Amino acid sequence: MRAKKSPKGSPSLISPTGVIKLMTHAMMGAALGLTFTLALILVNPAAAELLNDGGRAAAFVFVATMVTTFAIGASLTGVVFILNEDKNS
Prior knowledge:
Blueprint: H1 16-43, H2 45-88
Helix pairs in contact: 1-2
Keywords: Membrane, Transmembrane, Transmembrane helix
């Protein structure tokens, strides 16, 4: 079944459904970033040692940076997917 086109030819990125799709991509990216960060800390002893020496603030900044980077990347990829889906339908 084909998806309905947006009214007046506007892209679905601006619609409530598009915003929900974009937020879903951002949340998936954040979860993936958190998982990757945990795996990096567990697998790489040098990273764990640096975070141990840096204290709690260094660990928070490292995790926040990784999660934000992955979330932004997934959001940008989500924009491309949503716009491409609009173009194809």
